[in-house]
Amino acid sequence: MTTEAQEQSSVNLPPAAPADGLPTHEVTLSDVAAAKVRELLTQEGREDLRLRIAVQPGGCSGLIYQLYFDERVLDGDAVRDFDGVEVIVDKMSVPYLIGANIDFEDSITKVGFTIDNPNAAGSCACGDSFH
């Protein structure tokens, strides 16, 4: 199986039901991104952290993504598990992120997490914000 086929298969898997009964969301995490998150958590020595993605007001187009590690699970959070990597989305951000995919790119031109969001109608020239 090629890398592209492997990533595609991970995107189409149904969400694992969270053990603590929290609602789920429709954000997906590629296998490459999940591996990078695990690597970063191992480097930090913190197996208790989750990857949180949020949408906040800001940037030239009106909204920006926040992507960070968080040990908290807040009231109203939605969660999905991707082979041991939990991705958490707050209830206000869930509608903005339906169908979004988080990936990790490591190429000559770009290194970092990317978010492909079908709900983004447009973005600014720098690519840091969307509407």
Automatic annotation (TrEMBL):
InterPro entries per record: ATAP, ATAP_core_dom, FeS_cluster_insertion_CS, HesB-like_dom_sf
Domain Core: 26-128
Bias kind Polar residues: ranges: 1-12
A Gene Ontology biological process term: iron-sulfur cluster assembly
Pfam families: Fe-S_biosyn
Renumbered residue ranges of the record's region Disordered: 1-22
Superkingdom: Bacteria
PROSITE patterns: HESB
GO molecular function term, any single one: 4 iron, 4 sulfur cluster binding
Protein name, as recorded: Iron-sulfur cluster assembly accessory protein
Taxonomic source organism: Auritidibacter ignavus
